[in-house]
Amino acid sequence: MGADTTPLLLKIEGLQKGFGGNVVLDGASLDVPRGSLVTVLGRSGAGKSVLLKCLADVVQPDSGSIFFDGKPLATGDAAARADFRRRCSFLFQSNALFDSLTALENVELPLEQTTSVPDKEIRERSLEALRQLELEAYKDHYPSQLSGGMQKRLALARAIVTRPELVLFDEPTAGLDPLRRNAVFAMIAKYQRQFGFTALVVTHDLTEALLASDRVALLDKGRMCFEGTPDEFSASTSTVVGDFRDSAAALGRTLASIRRGEALQPEDS
Ligand SMILES: Nc1ncnc2c1ncn2[C@@H]1O[C@H](COP(=O)(O)OP(=O)(O)OP(=O)(O)O)[C@@H](O)[C@H]1O
């Protein structure tokens, strides 16, 4: 696996989390170099969302450590958590936009809620974020009046308006067809480079992840069984990695058949 000497913005070490008797994270570790786009892959139910929830402090790990910018991010350490919340944004699967607020008001909200920036600057920064995401002309539109792709861009505008160093993406392409999945990953990669934030994405979309990411990791049985570059992932001879590549390819064939209106083959169902 490729060594990366870039300083780490986020380091997860030996994260353990169970629900009742169900062990979901079993010593998961991950390195996220500053300025990179890192994708955690894994089958449905592998624990990708639980991993993000541990970062968001929504779920408390049973043991293990999280380091942000070199400092431990312990549950209950209010100062470290507040610092993390200030420097990190989440982008949820559902976009979590407020239907009753305009595009501009949606983007203004995190600045109003988490900073003491004066109103005039909030307006300027929010308009700038909309401009950067090519949505300025839609500032007075409500989310329901925007296309799915525009809603994703609006959610990203809201996530970056606080100028976060780290953006966490939970299944950003869930429920989208392959073309739109591609567009969403291209958008993440483009703006990640343009704004220079570090991105951590969790998904099961292998093809898009390999094209867009600097590094990928595979979560299986509660552990990262692979961490490396997309090329290393493609070339890996590990059985777990091979199985994941095969199942992703089979899913791709099934989706292509469905798009062509063909009946499902027994192996696909
Ligand atoms: N609050 C909870 N209480 C009990 N079990 C939970 C809870 N949250 C998650 N789990 C369990 O943890 C496991 C992993 O769930 P998680 O949502 O992290 O999977 P995932 O990898 O994100 O899957 P998907 O790709 O389908 O979203 C599942 O078995 C789930 O039922």
Supply the helix-strand structural class: alpha/beta
Strand content: 15-25%
| Average predicted confidence as pLDDT | 87
Please write the string of helix (H) and strand (E) elements: EEEHEEHEHHHEHEHEEHH
Query: What level of helicity do the residues show?
Result: 40-55%
What's the shape? globular
CATH class: Alpha Beta
Number of helices: 9
C-alpha termini separation: 35 Å
For the biggest sheet, the summary is:
6 strands, mixed
The distinct bound ligands, ions and cofactors come out as: adenosine-5'-triphosphate
CATH topology: Rossmann fold
How would you describe what is shown here?
This is Phospholipid/cholesterol/gamma-HCH transport system ATP-binding protein. InterPro entries: AAA+_ATPase, ABC_transporter-like_ATP-bd, ABC_transporter-like_CS, P-loop_NTPase. Residues 10-246 form the ABC transporter domain. This protein is globular. It has a six-stranded mixed sheet with strand order 6-7-8-3-9-10, sandwiched between helices. The protein has a four-stranded antiparallel sheet with strand order 2-1-4-5, with helices on one face. It has one domain: Rossmann fold. By secondary structure, the protein is an alpha/beta fold. The chain is built from nine helices and ten strands. The model has no long low-confidence stretch (mean pLDDT 87). Strand 4 and strand 5 form a beta hairpin. The structure holds adenosine-5'-triphosphate.
